[in-house]
Amino acid sequence: MLTAFTIKIYQLGAALLVLAVDWIAAQDQDLVRSCAAYKKSVFEETSEFSLLYPNAPIIYKTRDTCTSYTPLIIGGGPAVPKEFPHAARLGNRNEDNEINWFCGGTLISNQHVLTAAHCLFTENGAVNVVRLGELEFDNDKDDADPEDFGVTNATVHPGYAHPIIYNDIALLRLSRPVTLNEV
Predict the structure, then answer these.
(1) In terms of C-beta density within 10 A (0-12 exposed, 13-18 middle, 19 or more buried), how is residue 33 classed?
(2) CA 38 to chain centre
(3) Fewer Cβ neighbours under 10 Å: the N or C end of the chain?
């Protein structure tokens, strides 16, 4: 398929800047449409005006329509040991061997964890440890058998631009393959 572009060339000292202007504008429009759709799904916009005072300013209000946190899915129950072996806890292990846990992910192969790209852009440091098999974070007597894995590589979606939420996805490569046990 052939696509026509308007090319603009700018002289910048000894360098030339060549832009496919129509393509860039189309990308911007797609982003604007995506942002508008997301905004409509999360926020409710209303306007208030006066019938008695026609020259009164119109007041625009935006209300966050996201529901509050619910600890369980409707009709759900607490997880049991070894029920979700693919659930991953992400953290940073410092030089004192202390781990600061701050994000989550999902094991998608024997050596890869899918997570949100924003997890890799925090003040907590780099994600360098993944824990699998955890049930209760603060309980060592819950019949779970968690195992920690190092992280050798983190790949962020090329379209992700922190802190914007679009393309907020990343892939972590574990330092060794995961062996899933029989339950």
Answers:
(1) exposed
(2) 14
(3) N
The structure tokens listed for 12 are 């910048």
Helix runs in the chain, H state only: 21-42
3-state secondary structure of 183: coil
Amino acid 133 reads G
- As a whole number, mean pLDDT of residues 64-86 equals 66
CB under 8 Å, gap of 24 or more: what pairs does 155-160 form?
Answer: 156/117, 156/120, 157/117, 160/117
d(CA 38, CA 166) in angstroms, rounded, equals 10
Give me the pLDDT at residue 154, please.
96
Closest Cα partner for 154 from 119, 104, 107? 119
What is the reported pLDDT for 34? 65
Give pLDDT tens digits for 13-69: 555 554 544 544 555 566 666 666 666 666 677 777 777 777 878 777 766 555 544
Average pLDDT, the chain: 77
C-alpha 35 chain-centroid distance: 15
What's the Cα-to-Cα distance from 77 to each of 6, 83, 86, 105, 120, rounded to whole Å?
A: 58, 12, 18, 21, 31
3-state SS, residue 40:
helix
Ramachandran quadrant class, 83 (left: phi over 0; alpha: psi -120 to 50; beta: rest) = alpha
Q: Which amino acid is present at 61?
A: K
